[in-house]
Design a protein that fits this description.
alpha/beta, 223 residues, 10 strands, 26% strand, 4-stranded antiparallel β-sheet, 4-stranded parallel β-sheet
């Protein structure tokens, strides 16, 4: 579904990504960093392809409309909007808006607590609730691949378990996933393949079951 070839990117005069190659197949989950793929940071070199079609220089909103939906670190919800209003913002593209009610029903089925709090302002939610709302907003679009950046960032261990249980539900619904997370334990049983980056360079890749069982590798790179 998604292919990245030799991607180089950075900020100012510094280079952060150094020639990254990766692929995500349909209905698969993988780990890496995401901003350049989704058009938020222009690459200096390399290519991003969706279904074989190059999207490297597309605008971020065009990439989202094509089905690559980024759930950013920190969620970036609209604090003075209700839960339902935030969800509807995920369906703002014209063709998706016509299906908004059916998509709301789907999100409420995956996350029943969202329906219970549909009139509550986003700013009044807990950190874990905000993260679930961000996931739900991503699902309101015609997403084919969800790119989820650090879903466990700043959350207590129990809340992290709940968030990843929600992500498991999303994957079981048939969604493809690309996840960035510093804790390998969080993706055990979820990721199909792992890409391990160190200071912006790809150092290992392979089936998740193989890499996550390599204790020496995990201790060397992830502590």
């Amino acid at each position: 579904m998604l292919e990245v070839k030799g991607l180089v990117a950075g900020y100012g005069g510094g280079e952060v990504l150094h020639g990254i190659d990766l692929v995500v197949n349909e209905r698969e989950g993988v780990i890496t960093l995401l901003r350049t793929i989704t058009g938020l940071l222009p690459p200096r070199a390399g290519k991003v392809l969706l279904d074989g079609k190059e999207i490297t220089r597309w605008r971020a909103d065009s990439i989202a409309a094509a089905g690559l939906v980024h759930i950013p670190q920190g969620d970036l919800l609209f604090p003075e909007m209700t839960v339902t209003e935030n969800l509807l913002m995920g369906a703002y593209h014209g063709p998706t808006w016509a299906e908004r009610n059916a998509r709301l029903d789907r999100v409420y089925e995956l996350f029943p607590w969202l329906k219970e709090r549909r009139g509550q302002l986003a700013r009044t939610l807990s950190g874990g609730e905000r993260r679930m709302l961000a996931l739900g907003r991503g699902l309101m679009s015609k997403a084919r691949l969800l790119l989820i950046d650090e879903p466990s960032l700043g959350l207590a261990p129990l809340i992290t378990q709940q968030i990843y249980a929600s992500i498991h539900k999303v994957k079981e619904s048939g969604m493809s996933l690309l996840i960035a997370d510093e804790n390998a334990n969080h993706v055990a049983g979820l990721a199909d393949r792992v890409y391990l980056l160190e200071t912006g360079s790809l150092v290992r890749e392979g089936p998740a079951n193989d890499l996550l069982r390599d204790k020496a590798l995990l201790e060397s790179y992830l502590g």
